[in-house]
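User: YncE family protein. Structure?
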Amino acid sequence: MAVDVAGRRLFVAELGNGSIGVVDLSTLQVSGRIRGLNEPQGVGYLPSTDTVYVASAGDGSVRTYRGRALEEAAHIQLGEDADNIRVDSAGNRVFVGYGQGWLAVIDAGQARKLSDIPLHGHPEGFQLGNDGDRIFVNVPDANVVEVVDRQGGEVVARWKTGQAGENFPMALAEAYGKVLVAFRAPAMLSAFSMVDGARVKDARTCGDADDMFVDAKRHRVYVSCGDAHLDVFELEDGSFRRMASLPTAPGARTSLFVPELDRLFLAVRARAGEQAAIWVYRPAR
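Assistant: Predicted structure:
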């Protein structure tokens, strides 16, 4: 998912339908769709140009759509399994994980690929450091977290995850100097030092984790999981403890926390007798 805060639009990848749903956040109704996509997975939004970026696993493409009408503006071919997208608004760059181990670097202004950063396996969750120099990448195929030098375009550190596997979601708690990683096997949340990759804290979390976000205002972490739970952790001095485990719906693991709106959006799949929906959570004070 991605959000246009000013335009109050939420963009939701509908992989099975080959589309991107557009939700009007003023009415909480679907206001439109981008159709004809081949397994859309990653969605990003660049406010400065009012552009939506969509990565599709089926054809390995990144397509861009601009303005309120969401007219297609560009088509960038990458390779198989185009997946997660991260947008660097300040640097006017878009990063896309794809293939057997690549991060594509896209010039947002010219809508063209500038380079590929090689990794040691397919990238799952990754985050751009606010320092502008580093990218932290989950590479579950190799049981590592890789640290990329953004300027040099290469991996400069590899943090082994030990017996923990399937590291998919990631979030940065930069105020505490920590990289937070959620594992699926076993279901666990871990904190790594941003300085040297030392693993400093582990805690049990919900199963089949797919998205995770830091609420800097409340010093909390939100983890959405396919086992029908949304876990809430309290951050304290870089450590954490689970405050709550909220029941959701089976398979509802895709989420987006938007600090500017103070809301967490959870994508809930269609079930017997119920349509697919977006559940909206307001964090407790």
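The radius of gyration is 18 Å. The chain has two domains: 1-118, 166-285.
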